[in-house]
Amino acid sequence: MIAAPPPAGPDPGAERAPAPAPELAEQVLARFAQARLWAAARAPYLTRALFALQPVLVEARLDETTGEPVADPALRAFPTDTRWRVHLDPGTALTTPVAEIGWWMLHHIGHLVRHHAERAPAPPPGPATGPAAGPTAPAAGRSTPPRGAVPAAGAREAPRPWNLAADAEVDDDLESMGLTTPAGVVSPRGLGLPPGRLAEEYLSLIEVLDAAHRRGGRPLAEPIDCGGAVDGIDDAPPGAGEPAPGLDDTERDLLELAVAREIETRSIRRATVPGGWRRWAQGRLHPAVDWRAELGALLRRGVRRMAGRVDFTYARPSRRKAGDGIVMPAMVGPDPDVALVVDTSGSITPTLLTGFLTEITAILARAAGPRRRVRLICCDRRAHGVQTVRRAQDIELIGGGGTDQREGIGAALALRPRPDLILVLTDGQTPWPDRRPPVPVVIALVEPGPGLRAQAPPPAWARTIPLPADPPPAGVVTRSRT
């Protein structure tokens, strides 16, 4: 969120209370409840989401003279993480108007249901460059890290403009609702940007504006910490109490579907719902995802990760000459290797498999190179022999009956050399390995046939791409039964 320079706050060295006193905690939670009711009255279609937010109290900052809790400017936005936990600083909560707290709740719900944390771009390799670089740029992945916070090991540094872009996508809806925006918060209209865009669209525009402002000696705007709901780094503010359990992936999916259905129902009844929320509900209930683009992006990302590996080889000596007749090795970059595991159980029709295999082999050719051969394993209850193919027309689909993709993934891991990425094509009516394989796995999930349903949901350690029920047109693939 974008804020004006914060007012003079408490001394950064002010002590924190070891834990909020019961009376203080009760006052803070009561204020949180009032703000939630305020927000629900303004956006009744988000009531389920508002009551799913779980408050977590942060240790109060105390004034050195009076010993009373004081507001912490770094926690002005009540940071929220991806498990729907809201961190409440007592001093900030008790001095912030109820309407403003409610506004921040609606703001964070916008981040959460739009999955801004998952959409956040990964930082480029090497030292930071561009608008976010420099001594004034935050370096912990958060827009404004809490005092004393240390980035978790392997934490991803989100580019600062992404925070502004995600805020622009959310605040556009809040502004259209006629809500009073907190002081210092800038909307797309305030930035001179067109309304109704996605964060990815705002990102490029904001980067240009930010670069121009920095050439003039100051950044475009100063963001404040909205928490992991924006960047995906769920490190709690210092002094946070015992964390609430939060929502798991299944609970979040069910909640989003319920909220989307409520929005769609109210829209049908011609109730007032902002256009941004209507578009979100439409996309959530009736997604029109280009699975080819999504699968291609995942495969290219995995291939690119492996393509940077280099090694020495004497198979092709180096062109550089060494003294005393010493032959020097050359550097090679091994081609990334993708193994394709295909579910050939009786629940998947040959026509369905043929169409998707033609598409997938074409995607692999674009991702890994046109000369790359793919190692393919057909799997029903057991894994069949490995086929090395370049085109879908070269594939012989072998199998029938039940399926156990644990066997197929295990056979792929046993290949030598071991693949850099495993792509599983299945309808989900299979058990899955209990543990994360040592190789990244992408599951292309075909919609089960009539009267069928997935035996178990895809594992959390794999990336899943849903495929449409109607296969794309394709050539002929030979199928034999064993």
Structure commentary:
- By secondary structure, the chain is α/β, with parallel strands linked by helices.
- Residues 1-13, 124-159 and 474-482 have low confidence and may be disordered.
- Helix 1 crosses helix 4 (98-113), helix 10 packs across helix 11 (275-285) and helix 12 (291-307) crosses helix 13 (350-368).
- The protein has helices at 22-42, 47-52, 90-95, 98-113, 116-119, 160-176, 188-191, 199-215, 228-231, 249-268, 275-285, 291-307, 350-368, 405-413; strands at residues 2-3, 54-57, 61-62, 69-70, 85-88, 222-223, 311-313, 330-332, 338-343, 374-379, 383-389, 396-398, 421-426, 441-446, 463-467, 478-480.
- It folds into two domains: 2-121 and 157-285, no CATH class; 291-318 and 325-480, Rossmann fold (3-Layer(aba) Sandwich), CATH 3.40.50.
- It is globular and about 75 Å long.
- The protein contains 14 helices and 16 strands.
Chart the SSEs and their pairings.
Elements: E1 2-3, H1 22-42, H2 47-52, E2 54-57, E3 61-62, E4 69-70, E5 85-88, H3 90-95, H4 98-113, H5 116-119, H6 160-176, H7 188-191, H8 199-215, E6 222-223, H9 228-231, H10 249-268, H11 275-285, H12 291-307, E7 311-313, E8 330-332, E9 338-343, H13 350-368, E10 374-379, E11 383-389, E12 396-398, H14 405-413, E13 421-426, E14 441-446, E15 463-467, E16 478-480
Helix pairs in contact: 1-4, 4-6, 6-8, 10-11, 12-13
